[in-house]
Amino acid sequence: MIRRSVPLRYRRGSIALMTLCLAVFAAAQTPATAPAPAPSTSAIGSYKDLKYPPLPAIKVPEPVQFTLSNGMRIFLLENHELPLVSGLAMVRTGNLFDPADKHGLSQIMAEVMRSGGTKDKTGDQIDEELEDVAASVESSMDETSASMSFSALKETADKVMGVFRDVLTGPEFRQDKIDLSMLQMRGGIARRNDDAEAIPGRELASILYGRDTAYGWQIEYADLDRIKRDDLIAFYKRYYFPKNIMLAVYGDFTAAEMRDKLEKLFASWTVDQPPAPPFPAVTAKPAPGVYFGEKPDITQTFFAIGHLGGTFRDKDYAALQVAANILGQGFTSRLVSQIRTKLGYAYSIAALWNANFDHPGMFQIVGSTKSASTVEALQAINVEVNKIRTAEVTPLELEEAKQGVLNGFVFFFDSPAKTLNRVMRYEYFGYPKDFLFQYQKAIAAVTRADVMRVAKLYFHPQELATVAVGNPKELGKPLSTVGKVIALDLTIPEPKPSAAAAPAGDAALSGEQAARGRQLLERAQQAMGGAGKLAEIKDFRATRELNMAAGGLKIKQVNLFLAPSYLRQEQELPFGKMTAFSDGKSGWLAAPPQGVMPMPAEILKQAQGVIFRDLAGLMLASRDPARKVNAVGENTVEITAIAGVGDGQSVKVEFDPATGLPLKETYAAAGMAGATVVETMSDWRDAGGGVKLPFKTVLEQNGQKVADSTASEFKFNVGLTQEELGKRP
Fold it and tell me: Which run of H or of E encompasses 448?
């Protein structure tokens, strides 16, 4: 299996989290607002006495619709509450149209369509122009549609719409941005097995739709090696033409004025093509069985169980949605109540009837369980699926499930953007304008008998495919207890050495500097115990003491990390215990007196930097397609993240010429303009298992000492879990 040779981990023996610690400390000092005195309960009375009026009927405003002279369909919706103007173009295309030997083509095309800029301006120049006026223009590709959007203040809307038009009608597809997009996608391929929780759903889709179909393929290195700039241009020209586009604009304008602006804006864009072909049909047959993928580095079994479902048009869709909610949505659902609460087999479990607009979706049951209880959990799920097919649900279950769906309708129309986009999407897929209200009425009419009828008719236990990913040595009963086991091959085909793996013309990645950088990293790997030993560490617990230069404050700190990016820091401070957690995408902080609060953006960026600057990960960066390595001195390399956590951040690592061990790291302090951080590492010792790490680190900022750190204990591969790290105090 080819993947990142070592997952992102904590910088062992350093104080990479020290800046995070300081930021958390500062956040905790923000004065809390004193709580208002609680009113007397006798004055309020019982909550049972509260009376609520019925919710008002939802009124959907009717957008103005017309067609431009070039054939582009337009939807306009005025909203004068805020001085904003936004738009969304939907293009009838999708990644289902990718050639069979060039999967990923449309995704790269959509990304570079925006990042590659136009003939007159590069993507970076457009970025600067839009940032100056607090605006955006974005492009994306989905399975059955592509989109391009813009957002602007009213006063700059004309200028931003001009940029939007230029990108939509004349993208340049510059080669350097194509290379960057390809490199980032290669990094995604290399890391696709790092997140064990995502594997079962991915593999289940491939099994149910067919691995050789447009719905079931996945991108491989070989696909990317075949994609050229001319392919992107050809895909764009085939599908991006006025008659194949629907454009919705909403915000602070008058419809008559906006109509004139759009007519003039797109008057010269008159290219034409034959209508886009229909999307391919789903032809897969049922593929029941138990599919198992081995992943020895995890302590849970993640699973996805399902078979093909239906579309939103199905006459029984409303009843199926209610049935799926009763089976596995929310804490009162049957699967949660039985599998999690009563039996204690699973921390998370859910059932979903996922329909699509124009092709069958999937009926799925997803979750995870302790490795030892894998068979018992799967058997218990089967019992619940059969039970809902053979006996009516209770009146309370029915009512709670229906209300759960109906009460969510208000969120479909809580902004003009959502309202207009929903109207346009129904038009795009040929649904009636009042489809949502038809669905609302159908949900209200579902009965207990309907639930049992559709469960019996549409839930097919004999057709279920079960995908499980886990450690085969930790399973309790043999997996064959629940059916014939089919081995899943999770290995990633080796990439071929190719210029496509690195930006063309970038000597730092292909010349002498890159070669020198690899030599320095390889020497450091050996000095630290060997690349293999570094790669074996999947999680860790490290205890250290921080000595802050200002005020002599001493902080006891425990850091925990689970690959690929789960980070938790616990520290004892004079005013109490503080905890910080991040999964690399978001996070939270817990500190007195505020309690738990979302992690601010600047602190999150620091946490992402910590993950990116993981010492072992840096030493193996030359093997990671998501990182750029460049020697910038005889004993110094610069490593830049070009994808994944820490994207855009870089660090310079200076090595000791005598030992080959890392000596210093220099990087820009996240969220602190102009601040440069230098970390000096020393006292290298065996931290366990033959891995050599620095036990002392000194942190300097702009030449001034901030703190030093001394590690007292390291423990590797202790069996940490996502739930454990993310548990709130």
Answer: helix 448-458
